[in-house]
User: Fold this.
Amino acid sequence: MKLKSVLKLSGVLALSVVVLAACGSKSSSSDSKELADKQVINWSETAELPSMDLSTATDTVSFNMLNNTNEGLYSIGKNSKVSNALATKTTISKDGMTYTFNLRDSKWSNGDDVTAQDFVYSWQRTVNPKTASQYGYLFSGIKNYDAISTGKMAPTTLGVKATDKHTLVVTLDKKVPYFKLLMGFPSFYPQNQKSVEKFGSKYGTQSKYMVYNGPFVLDGWTGTNLNWKLKKNNTYWDKKAVKLTEMNFQVSKDNTTSYNLYQSKKLDMTNLSAEQAKTLNMDKDYITRKQASTFYLQYNQKNKLFQNKKIRQAISLVINRKQFVDKILGDGSTVASGLVSTGLASNPKTGTDFAKESAVKMAASTDVTEAKKLWKAGLKEVGVSKASFSIMSEDTDKAKKTNEFLQNAIEDNLDGADVTLINIPFKSRLARSTSGDFDIVVTAWGADFSDPISFLDLFTSDNSQNGGKWKNSEYDALIKASKTTDASNPDKRWDDLVKAEKILMEDQGISPLYQMSQAQLLRSTVKGVIYNGAGVNYNFKGAYVTK
Amino acid sequence: MGKYLVKRIFYMLLTLFLVATITFFLMKLMPGSPYANQQKMTPEQLQIMNEQYGLNKPVWQQYLIYLLGLVKGDLGTSFQYSNQPVSYLISSRIGPSGQLGLQAIIFGLVIGIVIGAIGAINKNTWIDTSSTILSILGISIPSFVLAVLLQYYVGLKLGWLPIADWGGFSYTILPTIALGVGPLAETARFIRTEMVDVLSSDYIELAKAKGLTKFGVVFHHALRNSLIPLVTLIGPYTVALMTGSMVVENIFSIPGIGEQFVKSILTNDFPTIMGVTMLYSAGLVVVILLTDIIYGIIDPRIRLTGRRN
Assistant:
């Protein structure tokens, strides 16, 4: 541990020297609109690219690369706006259960045509239990998926058909209000059957064992190496819109290294650690990427203490979240006002952000006097004078700091509270969360797609991931209505979801803590990179470099 | 000698078998599944996944299946890298780690011997003191601190060598120095002590009396005899460099094996954990055997079989 601190200290020292040095240097040109001669971006990744098989990929790097080298029916633009990609026209049946897509002419990088059959093949491959896809659940709602996923029906019975080369018909067995958003996620992209069969078990394990139909092709990836390239795809139907000729990716797991590379102009982007973010947040290249990921305190309803609403509220009210994100985290993360993250979805009528519209004052504010009152009353209702409980979290530095902050806030302000901390590895934490073996757990949830339901589904009483077993029949009814009776009515559905979030927050079924952000330095000459907090993070199709 | 070798190889295989067995069962005690998206999967989905990967079978059956695969040379498929065989994962990443380890050992030993010898010859002078200070510094500064400093000053500020990445020989220099300074310092200290002893022994006096040059005495007699005990140090160095280079590999963005090991444990990537553990263990037992054999050959006082020649 000591050695680690030495390392950190030297890192910080090195950084501060660099920052001071940087103060004196001239700022580079940034607002020029003229395109640079070399349209190349050097991008930093913090982890390897493990897979390019869209049926089995699980991590963000893989999904980012898949999203930029392949294309589906729609693409997801700025603020999660859905627009046509391979689809030219979408017809939705009156009952909302059948989608018919007309596809444009486009080609795979091996010269084959992209056809409706490629979608059928890809989807059937992903839902096949033998493929063991970890994202198969996203297909839930498409006809027969649930039976196929448990092996009761054949993958060929999935509700997807190619009526001709350019027409794809998808049948649902329940309404999926966010269906279009899903079509922009790589799991729903087509796959070239010929290539999958030709490469066999090697498919998607190296850049040469793969075909592409997106804006870029992958190059130089050996499956385990730390450098690879995206090159402009000359067989792409919309190649005119692609300005970059090349993107170089460099994995550096150490943020100090990537920052050094950034300074020597070997990289155009670097992710920052919290320590770096604290010193560099005034830099002109500093930006934060808000992720659709919320950290919160989950209470175990099996524990008598936490069945009491006043106790839950009291705990939430003693946490000074602003101080926590600014002083303790300092990595650009922001206070979470509720479960659904900020910037995820906006009201179909007014455009107001979901998090803002559903905000409840009680949910994330600090009021120690009120908290003390509630705590006293709560303890009395439970019939105890003292309360000992544990807060569980992971064993990372960040999780430990979070736990210590919470312990201090609770023990300092709530009389008779005795908090023990449990910091264990992620996998152990997850196992205990799911089996309900905890008092309070600090946990996070990230959205797969930009819809509030991606978060709110979690706390219905029958959800297997609801390890704290918080239950509210009104909440359950609203979530159900949003999926059934109100599914085709965007406004009503929105209201249901807003109400549900308000119930969860007023009851403090969970206490929101913070929304995660990634601080970055991004060269000011790099423009047009689209970032979304949910689903796939990056879209480089329209990116370019100015002089 | 032949008999001895057969016996040693038998013990080696036994050791590896025990390592495989113990690691396998310890690994199975870890909570959680090897699936990255476990948090979002329902218990039913997890059940289906476990069936696909044979993880629903009793542990002893999984163990037998694993052993059978191991005998056939099949290490399984990685979970972190879907579809990627563990053997490919290891073979594609062992190269850089091995090269760095080897370079660091050679660098450490050669420079360490020179510094140690110079110190011993000039015993109790300022040269000796400086070489001792150098050794103490080398031992007390951890390799990763040195790595960060080298990267910042030599890589970024002076721009003499690449900051990070893996390309040609120039990319290996900074990490080699960072890794090699520890062994260098230990070797220097060790050689100095040994040589001071040897230099005051009778046969050196005799050699001097016979009128050999100073170089001849030091090189042919003193250094040679001081080197023998050094062989015992090579084993531990190799192990240290195999396991200790993870942080340095991360700092210099080297596609090595060290970090894979840690990551595989954190993500419950069972086949990779086993694969890398077996690799490390096999490397270690082979190095130990080689050390013993070399020792027997270069030092006549040590006989492997206890039989007179």
Chain A touches chain B through 58 residues (CB under 8 Å). The first helix of chain A runs from residue 2 to 24. The longest strand of chain A covers residues 286-299.
